[in-house]
Amino acid sequence: MRSWLFVPGDSARKQEKSLDCGADVLILDLEDSVAASEKEAARMMTRAFIAATKSLPKRPKLYVRVNDFTTGLTAADLEGVMPAGPDGIMLPKAVGGRDLIALDNQLSSAEAKLGLKSGATRIIPVATETAAAVLALPSVSGSTERLVALTWGAEDLAADVGAESNIETGDKYTTPYLVVRSLALFAAVASGVDPIDTAYVNYKDTDKFAADCRLSRRDGFVGRIAIHPAQVPVINETYTPSPAAIERARKIVHAFDSNPGVGVIGLDGEMLDMPHYRQATRILRRIAAAE
Predict the structure, then answer these.
(1) Contacts with 233 (C-beta within 8 Å, 6 or more apart), sequence order
(2) Over the stretch 263-273, which tens digit does the pLDDT of each residue have?
(3) pLDDT-above-90 percentage for the chain
(4) Virtual CA dihedral for 153, 170, 232, 144, nearest 10 degrees?
(5) Distance between CA atoms of 208 and 218, rounded to whole angstroms?
(6) Phi, psi (degrees; rounded to nearest 5) at 142
(7) Where in the chain are all domains bearing CATH 3.20.20.60?
(8) How far, in Å, CA of 275 to CA of 11, rounded?
(9) Contacts of 120 (CB under 8 A, 6+ apart)
(10) Which of 10, 139, 266, 281 has its CA 20 to 30 A from that of 66?
(11) Mean of pLDDT values over 223-228
């Protein structure tokens, strides 16, 4: 899943409009974009939207960003939206495996109570929004089988740390946040799930955003958070492997699969080994998932 678009949980107009933007995943937000006085209304509106949308023959995945555990609102958020059967839950400010296990248990209870398929509700944590969460990243791996992806965030982390800024000249993250980005990438890969890059705030500058997405793809991220529908086409184009890359991946996989037990193989004048094979299989899995 390449594009993950945030949609306010309390705006029926934006929810309906988001269905036509081409996003792979809609993240119906009950957290930052919803005022405290509107939380309950947002839960009901989000629940209704999920229930109405799930029956469509072609639709994006429907995830809900709940409020984090420290707010005391998480249980009410889940109680409000789980009857509609969302595809997944985004957990902000997740502190490693501890919080993911806690969410897993709550989802299991809700699925059993509502007659939903056990384990059907997937999880993507925003795994770096506090210093404690950064230090707990190694505990994410193996914490829950519901984990489907992992993303990171820098704004809440900067507030938690007390940083004057997390950006330097040229819209680049300062060193501490580049380190956190890398750790989130490694934590996702170590957990066997998709690394999803964080949002790019300046959504009006398409050229800079596209360039940043290319660098993100280069480093290993396979998708990105979007904060505006205009970012979705850029994300989908950038994180979809090119036809040439797909064809090469197919040739590499075919060459190794046709020669079981061989660790190194020659192809088109190059010597390729198992890291090339693993990368090729990842590309083909991404294409299969997109289709």
Answers:
(1) 22
(2) 888 888 888 88
(3) 79
(4) -20
(5) 15
(6) 80, 5
(7) 3-239
(8) 46
(9) 85, 111
(10) 139
(11) 97
**Structural tokens at position 277:** 């094979």
Q: What residue type is 37 in one-letter code? A: S
The structure tokens 């994180």 sit at: 239
